[in-house]
Amino acid sequence: MTKLSRAMTDILTELDAYLCSEDSPPDSLGLSDLDGFLTGVVCTPFPVANWVDVAFGAGATVPRRIMEMVEQRLAEIEAGLSSTTPALEPVFWQAPEGHAIAMDWCEGFMEAVKLNVTTWDEFGQSEIGAKLMSPILVHMFDDDGNSMFAGAIHTCG
Predict the structure, then answer these.
(1) pLDDT tens digit sequence for 27-84
(2) Which of these, 24, 12, 15, 101, lies nearest to 61 by C-alpha position?
(3) What is the Cα–Cα distance from 37 to 39, expressed in whole angstroms?
(4) How many CB atoms lie within 10 A of CB 130?
(5) How far apart are CA 51 and CA 33, in angstroms?
(6) Residue 37, SS3 per DSSP
(7) Cβ neighbourhood burial of 73 (10 Å; 0-12, 13-18, 19+)
(8) Distance CA 108, CA 32 (A)
């Protein structure tokens, strides 16, 4: 993993303040979810035209400065993952006890997966796909609180 630059940390702080404010569209993703979603968009093997509708809600009006910050984060994720030695510094929440909370980030990533379930399902069925998706799925639960990871193991194993 790489360490976020001071400039990116400032951008994420400002972006988080906006997303938590009354000014943000009601259907906006939170910061950690948004970061996971943007990572999923970068990892998707085809261009994702409607990502803004998922990130902020269909038809939402977002200030230009906010879109620029989101696009900067998207570019940083893409640069990190496409480098010779791929690197990613995900934005996780931190619990009061100090441990990372990855569930929101993983949920955001899965929002990108939902944009083309067939492609991602085929990838998840492969050996490498199952290996790469497992750390995300282990943090996912259905509406009844059941782990989605158990289903993934059963499907792939």
Answers:
(1) 999 999 999 999 999 998 888 888 999 999 999 999 999 999 999 999 999 999 999 9
(2) 24
(3) 5
(4) 17
(5) 13
(6) helix
(7) buried
(8) 7
Whether the Cβ atoms of residue 19 and residue 29 lie closer than 8 Å to each other = yes
* Residue 110 CA from chain centroid, whole number: 7
Q: Which token pair is 67?
A: 């879109």
Q: H or E segment at 94? A: strand 93-94
Quick check: helix, strand or coil at residue 1?
A: coil
Write out the two tokens for 59.
């038809």
Rounded to the nearest 10 degrees, how much is the dihedral formed by the CA atoms of 105, 75, 88, 13? -60
Query: pTM of the entire structure?
Result: 0.85
pLDDT in tens, 85-119: 999 999 999 889 989 889 899 899 999 999 988 88
Task: Quote the CA–CA distance of 8 and 68 in Å, as a whole number.
Answer: 12
